[in-house]
Amino acid sequence: xxxxxVAEITRNIKxxxxxxxxxLTEDMVSVIREAAKxxxxxLGRRILNQLDENMKIAGEDQVPICxxxxxxxxxxxxxxxxxxxxxxxxxxxxxxxxxxxxxxxLRKSVVGDPFGRVNTGDNTPAVIHYQIVxxxxxxxxxxxxxxxxxxxxxxxxxxxxxxxxGVKNAVISAVKDAGPNACPPVVVGVGIGGxxxxxxxxxxxxxxxxxxxxxxxxxxRELEQELLEKINRTGIGPxxxxxxxxxxxxxxxxxxxxxAGLPVAVNMCCHVxxxxxxxx
Amino acid sequence: MDKYISxxxxxxxxxxxxxxxxxxxxxxxxxxxxxxxKRMYEALQKGAELPLDxxxxxxxxxxxxxxxxxxxxxxxxxxxxxxxxxxxxxLLDLGLRGMIGKGRRTREVKEAIVRNHAVYFGAVGGAxxxxxxxxxxxxxxxxxxxxxxxxxxLEIRNFPVIVVVDAxxxxxxxxxxxxxxxx
Lengths: 280, 183
What we know:
The structure holds two protein chains of two kinds. Chain A is of the alpha/beta class. Chain A is built from eight helices and ten strands. Chain B is built from six helices and seven strands.
């Protein structure tokens, strides 16, 4: 058994909320720079170069990459040998978000009630997904999610007979419907299989996988590549203003499903695909 | 082509802008997003006064992140314009000259743009740090209780935007994507 004080979680979550909003991971930085070299549209290249410049300015001026610093989505993968002390874990996580958004000059974008719509003032509550894993370590992923792209995400409850072609059509139609609204170039997180909620969670998780890391399953790896090429032939382009870079990556995660179903979730993410990961 | 214009501006200027023009704006604009639009719309329905005169002004759909000490503003990029589509025609009919945002507009908004010789500019979504450097000052002028969604008066200098929908009704989102479509 390994004992953790929940205060350690608060501190880490606070730092990770700030870190994720001020700097993108290396894989995201590289893929945007690479796209700027390969984009065929002159206006598209100009926009991609601005995105590169934007990341540099975020660091220099200590200004968040995007003003929509998101709703904090947090994955807690907790080793089953871990025991918590010092308070309730969920409270400690929310406190970390509260401190991070306050001290990091991050925007408070959460309303307490979907109809009352009064801002909670500290960006809590976060959306937290817990998973028990083997071992005695804790893996934390903080993924602040902006809603320009979140609003353009879709779930399709396909029929088994729709097959892989049905999945391709679903993903392409989601990207086309999103068009300029999702702040392209986008990263497309796709969850296939499971149930209604499981495929959505897979799609969200898929967005936290590095964009230079392809699926471990050969057929899925090919599907990721094919979809990326198809999406980049739509012409939507950087900022939706035309071009050959509409998506930077398609990340697909799969899970077993029911004999009667083929659930597909498409979680759209803008080029500010933020996440911070720590293993304690 | 690149153009440099000052805001606010009149019909002669908006009529001269064409979809696809890259424009640097300098002068005064006002921010308003979801909650401020809802409140202005409700004020209009009640016959109450709006907190700013629409005539020839430009509204920027934006809610900034908090400013650090000594800075005019935090990160300050555009939000999705379609959420303001319900309210925009009423403001355009009151003389609103331009809007800055990102993403598609409805047919109703585009018709109101043409009817009123207005313009819809796109700013690059997700470039909030870069765009903050073109904002010289920021002051809340109404709806302070809305926090990031309050109405702010911004002084901007060479703020980069692209004409997406011009006064003739041309929509760059439709034409530009078609040009690079290889399906």
